[in-house]
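Hello forum,

I keep getting stuck at the same step: I have a sequence, I want structure tokens, and every attempt I make locally crashes halfway through. Rather than fight my setup again tonight, could one of you with a working pipeline run this one for me? It's a single chain of 319 residues.
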Amino acid sequence: MSSYKEKTTQNSNLEEENLNKKLQETVVERKYSQNNGNQKSVSKRTYTSKPNELVVTLKASDEQQKIAKEMVTIWNEEFRYSIKPIKAYCSKNTNVKLYHLYKETFSEDLEKWKNYALKVNSSKFLMGEKPTKTGFKAVFSWLVKQDVVEDILNGAYGVGDRELDKNNLSQNIEKQKELIVQKTNDKIVEYIKNNISESKEKYEFNSYVLEKRFEDDGDRYCIKHLVTNNTWLSPHSLVYDSKNKGLHQSLYESYVMKKYFGKTNLEARTKVKHSIDDISNKTAGIELFKKLSDLNNQISCLDLEVTKKSLHLKDIFYI
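Reply #2:
Ran it on my machine without issues. Output:
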């Protein structure tokens, strides 16, 4: 009797294991897409240990992925002339959306997709250049939504109120140069604020001005001509008159830069401009724009170090 029960239990356990194994199998089914009778899409059905649970994950076919990559390449090619491009990318979700747009909205015509990208590039609002409360700028995942695409194709969101970046390359190159100079200066100011005692340095700066030490050091910080050749500005008014607060701050920052980095604000900006000119003399057009864009991106994540009172702009160039 005991042997019979043990055998029955073993059979029951074996059947349960087989059932669980069967329920956990992954079955791949191919179905014809409702949107296109001759195009197959793949749905992956995963059965869990609970019979009523079913997880369905849509996977893009090889053709869908290929088309999506082509669409992303075309988009990024048109936006490579932009200072702040809207970058396209591939993902599981976007691949499916892109393929649907390719088949249904753009009638399998990649030239129409390219023209759509240009419409986006022609809108100040979509490119984030229209003043808004939230500082809106379109992102790629939003721009591939069916309803958004249709609106833009119909001229919504100010399409056409902005010059295409590909037609504005020369001006964008000059803007890139200005951004590099400004970003470099901002990085230096950021370093000063984070690593130097402002109260101590301002006290020493004010003493330097009030005591006219520039008379003895050859005007090292380029201040003398401002406070001795102007009837409206004196050392005392520079330090204490609130009307000169902006000038005082600017000269103070220049003083600190010269003291610790060996160059005044103006000298540093001039050096950066010369470095940019060297790049400009070696290349032109879209290649120059790309080099300046790369430089701009590097400065954004720049590491600043002070060594022997000289400022090192790591991996880019030296001021």
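Strands lie at 26-32, 40-47, 54-59, 304-307, 310-313, 317-318. If your local run keeps crashing, start a new thread with the error log.
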